[in-house]
Specification:
Elements lengths: L2 H11 L4 E7 L5 H13 L4 E5 L10 H12 L4 H12 L6 E4 L2 H7 L1 H11 L3 E3 L9 H10 L2 E3 L1 E2 L5 H10 L4 E4 L14 H11 L5 E4 L5 H7 L5 E4 L1 H27 L1
Parallel strand pairs: 1-2, 1-9, 2-3, 3-4, 4-5, 6-7, 7-8, 8-9
Helix pairs in contact: 2-4, 2-11, 4-6, 6-7, 10-11
Length: 260
């Protein structure tokens, strides 16, 4: 069973697809990051992706890097991620995934991390720098605690790698729309459509596209062929520029375009 996959399937049955919204935990402070995440759900986001600030965010673009570095400078600790998940899941029904690089999980302890995530009500993990053939500890811990695990697939991935990601993932497969780092782009790369098609051929039943999606038009474009659209940098920028009202407005605009 997967809470994330269930929500995505429900949105597909409703005729649209899922909107996944990303924000970093602890930015600009822990309390505000919790309120901002709740505001996303209240304004139409279906699945929350909460980024765990990390000192070497190799996949993140400048907007997210600045936010996570500010969170670290303000005193973010890994336990705050679980506190945020517990506070958010107590108020909204949307599933909450943590997006984390693998080193913090190893340092914390894989089984301990899985147990604390489950206790907080978190749905699972997105692990951008962990490949399935090196994820034995997490596969075992997530099976034991019944948590989702989202692995990434890139346009450069071989067919064998795609099949591996599909087999290992639970919730959805994260299709990286372009080679590079996160950040809003004027056009979502056409490579994403081909990648999603290849994932379908590999057996994927739930695929969400991320990296570069920032407008309602792009969300609609992605949902013509994918099951979900992931928006990150545009929401983080809105939070940075105008606080919770701005990020709520941005989520509402994306959602309104999606449901139209």
């Amino acid at each position: 069973m997967s809470a994330v996959a269930d929500v995505i399937a429900a949105r597909k049955s409703a005729g649209s697809g899922a909107l996944v919204g990303y924000l970093p935990v602890g930015y600009p402070n822990l309390a505000t990051s919790i309120e901002a995440a709740v505001a996303l759900v209240e304004n139409g986001v279906d699945v929350l992706e909460l980024g765990v600030p990390y000192s070497d965010p190799v996949m993140d673009g400048p907007v997210i890097q600045r936010a996570t570095q500010e969170a670290l400078a303000a005193g973010f600790r890994l336990r705050h991620g679980f506190e945020a998940v517990a506070a958010i899941t107590a108020r909204v029904s949307a599933p909450v995934l943590l997006m984390t690089y693998w080193n913090p999980v190893v340092q914390y302890g894989v089984d301990r991390f899985a147990d604390d995530l489950a206790a907080a009500g978190g749905a699972g993990l997105i692990t951008p720098d962990l490949v399935p053939d090196e994820a034995h500890a997490w596969l075992a811990a997530s099976d034991r605690t019944d948590r989702d695990r989202v692995f990434l697939a890139a346009p450069s991935s071989t067919d064998a790698r795609l099949e591996q990601a599909v087999r290992a993932s639970r919730g959805f497969v994260y299709a990286v729309s372009t080679m590079g780092i996160t950040g809003a782009r004027s056009d979502v790369d056409t490579a994403a459509r081909t990648l999603v098609s290849r994932l379908r051929m590999a057996g994927a039943t739930s695929t969400c596209v991320g990296l570069g999606i920032s407008t309602a038009d792009q969300v609609r474009e992605v949902l013509e062929y994918a099951d979900g659209a992931i928006v990150g940098s545009a929401l983080v920028a809105a939070l940075a520029d105008g606080g919770i009202p701005a990020v709520a407005q941005a989520a509402a605009a994306l959602s309104a375009g999606l449901r139209r």
